[in-house]
């Protein structure tokens, strides 16, 4: 503490002593040091003067007629207006009992007469410093109390706002859930009837195209409704996991085959790299993993006009500390939880740096997506919510016109092969779960007559067309075997239609190439 700075504080000092000589000496020295001094000769006058204009400090003699210093001090300490003023006793009484009494009645200090003026000045400055610091402390405490009060008010307002926001969000979610349900009911009827009408032979080709357009638009609307419901569930943390044991190799094979076909059709090189240490059987939510992969691959293909897409998958263990580290092979043996890492790298349009931060905002579209007018900005927010629900996270790095890299991981448990549950699926065939996950019922949206014409000769097209009209499934399956292995997705799609007796789809696919009328 720099006591010199206290000197600039022109303190008001009240001296109470029945000796005029003492009053003159003390007032002269204190005035010389810049203090404002008042002098009185009795305790009664001290009380009146202090109440009229409270001083900053009082020098009080003990031995005075009528009202001594002890009583004067007691009266001041009982007065709320004066009790905070520091009092220094001045007395010729040097008995310890007198000094103790002085402190008991409320005195802050005690100076024995005859006094040295240097001691008086030092003790005065010391008490004024303490008083000034106490005053500052009280002011800071008052400000702190006010800040605490304001903070409490702000917290209360925030709690109220949070409750209002949560109530509004709940109402919004309830509204969306009810509206989505109400929309689904008539939409399912539309999709069902358009599915039936596509089999009708009484409609013209033009009307058939109208029906197909209605059906495609209906499925798109259904997907949009499902996405809105999913993002609502994610906001309310209601996403549930339907975990099961399944063959990861089979699932990745289906994903690779499907997107390899779509990439080839767009003249995009699709490169897949699976780690040799990847576990085959895992326990996780298969449908949500498919949703994540298909959504990210669809985005990558959509915004990659030329070049390549690299799809990499590998596994790593999850450890609590360095001492428990195990290899993937060891983790498989002891059924240790592992992390599956996925990475998609493309040579597409890329994303500008200032737009990366808004990629996962609901209904947000980047310039590329906005200019292409594709989607409403729900795909990536839903994907991230699903990944986080599965214990992982996602990161995207990109530069405009230089491509994009999407990396994410999920946590899974290891499973064992169970023949009774038929975990091992034929990797060359699409399962119904996979077809549902990628909305494989797009028929002419995915496989076009021009695509078929580029792959198979006219005679083959005519043969499968006639077999489909007559409903000869065995003949169709035999013809499918003639499709080159490089176009396995086309073969599996036609096989799936045949096994589900969707011969009309084969007829619709081949009809434009042969210019033949529908026959019974």
Automatic annotation (TrEMBL):
Highest taxon above the source species: Bacteria
Stretches assigned to the Histidine kinase domain: 178-414
Enzyme's top EC category: transferase
4-aspartylphosphate: residues carrying this PTM: 61
Catalytic activity: ATP + protein L-histidine = ADP + protein N-phospho-L-histidine
Keywords assigned by UniProt, alphabetized: Coiled coil, Kinase, Phosphoprotein, Transferase, Two-component regulatory system
Keyword Phosphoprotein attached: yes
Pfam name, any one: Response_reg
Gene3D superfamilies with a match to the protein in the record: 1.10.287.130, 3.40.50.2300, Histidine kinase-like ATPase, C-terminal domain
The name this protein goes by in its record: histidine kinase
Lineage: Bacteria, Bacillati, Cyanobacteriota, Cyanophyceae, Oscillatoriophycideae
């Amino acid at each position: 503490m720099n006591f010199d700075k206290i000197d600039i504080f022109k303190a008001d000092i009240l001296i109470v002593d029945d000796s005029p000589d003492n009053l003159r000496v003390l007032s002269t020295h204190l005035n010389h040091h810049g203090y404002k001094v008042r002098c009185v000769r009795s305790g009664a006058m001290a009380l009146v003067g202090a109440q009229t204009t409270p001083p900053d400090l009082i020098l009080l003699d003990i031995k005075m007629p009528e009202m001594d210093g002890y009583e004067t001090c007691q009266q001041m300490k009982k007065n709320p207006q004066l009790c905070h003023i520091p009092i220094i006793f001045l007395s010729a009484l040097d008995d310890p009992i007198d000094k103790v009494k002085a402190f008991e009645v409320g005195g802050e200090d005690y100076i024995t007469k005859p006094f040295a003026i240097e001691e008086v000045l030092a003790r005065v400055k010391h008490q004024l410093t303490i008083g000034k610091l106490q005053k500052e402390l009280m002011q800071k405490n008052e400000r702190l109390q006010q800040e605490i009060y304001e903070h409490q008010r702000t917290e209360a307002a925030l709690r109220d706002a949070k409750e209002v926001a949560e109530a509004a969000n709940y109402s919004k979610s309830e509204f969306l859930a009810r509206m989505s349900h109400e929309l689904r009911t008539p939409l399912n009827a539309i999709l069902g009837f358009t599915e039936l009408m596509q089999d009708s032979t009484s409609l013209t080709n033009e009307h058939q195209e109208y029906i197909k357009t209605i059906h495609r638009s209906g499925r798109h609307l259904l997907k949009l409704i499902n996405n809105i419901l999913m993002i609502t569930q994610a906001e309310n943390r209601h996403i549930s996991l339907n975990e099961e044991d399944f063959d990861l190799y089979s699932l990745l094979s289906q994903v690779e085959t499907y997107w390899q076909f779509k990439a080839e059709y767009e003249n995009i090189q699709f490169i897949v790299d699976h780690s040799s240490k990847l576990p085959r059987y895992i326990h996780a939510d298969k449908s949500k993993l498919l949703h994540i992969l298909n959504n990210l691959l669809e985005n990558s293909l959509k915004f990659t006009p030329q070049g390549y897409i690299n799809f990499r998958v590998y596994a790593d263990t999850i450890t609590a500390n360095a001492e428990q580290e195990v290899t993937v092979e060891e983790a498989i043996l002891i059924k240790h939880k592992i992390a599956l890492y996925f990475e998609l790298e493309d040579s597409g349009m890329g994303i500008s740096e200032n737009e990366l931060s808004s990629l996962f905002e609901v209904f947000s579209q980047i310039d590329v997506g906005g200019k292409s007018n594709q989607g409403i900005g729900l795909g990536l927010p839903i994907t991230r919510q699903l990944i986080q629900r599965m214990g992982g996270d996602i990161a995207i790095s990109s530069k405009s016109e230089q491509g994009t890299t999407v990396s994410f991981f999920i946590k899974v448990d290891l499973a064992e092969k169970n023949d009774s549950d038929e975990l091992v699926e034929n990797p060359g065939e699409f399962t119904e779960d996979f077809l549902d996950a990628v909305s494989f019922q797009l028929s002419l949206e995915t496989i076009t007559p021009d695509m078929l014409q580029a792959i198979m000769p006219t005679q083959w097209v005519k043969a499968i067309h006639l077999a489909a009209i007559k409903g000869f499934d065995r003949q169709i399956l035999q013809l499918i075997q003639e499709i080159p292995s490089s176009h396995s997705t086309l073969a599996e799609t036609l096989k799936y239609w045949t096994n589900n007796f969707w011969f009309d789809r084969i007829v619709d696919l081949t009809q434009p190439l042969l210019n033949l009328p529908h026959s019974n």
